[in-house]
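Posting for a labmate who doesn't have an account.
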Amino acid sequence: MSSKVDWYFDKDQKWQKAVKQLRKIILDCGLTEELKWGCPCYTFQNSNIVLIHDFKEYCALLFFKGSLLEDSHKILIQQTQNVQAARQIRFTNVQEILEKVATLKAYIYEAIEVEKAGLKVTLKETADYTIPVEFQRKLNNNKALKSAFQSLTPGRQRAYILYFSAPKQSKTKESRIEKCIQPILSGKGLND
């Protein structure tokens, strides 16, 4: 246990009993507890294995390399279609956790073995993402924009592509693109 993380479990919240139970299960597996991204994160030899986080409708265990786990019980959830490596196991009450203690430990031990084996998730390259037609048109007609976009880090490029691709209506896509032209020209990412 890390005293730096205690506040997370002591705060008055909807999922307090559930996250305390998850903490107990994870610590029984011999992982090191740390605070990362404002959440309890559990590591093995300084590598992230699993994280506890809570949302309005559920609390969850997030396995950083969950896509590499066997998922024999079919309980891992891909948070969104754009999440490549991580997978969650979600809970809406403490009883669900108590019923799955052995299964959760098995998943945690499997995640540790994945890390020990040095397995890596093969991530999509930026070139594998489809650039929306509206943005491609802007890039084709504006050499400075195209050069600035190509100079961004792959992660920043992906963030823009996903942001521009999300709306269904072309008008909304174009509006988003217009608002982001100056930041792209300035070498900034979507969230900078």
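Reply:
Got it, the structure tokens are right above this. Residues 126-185 form one domain.
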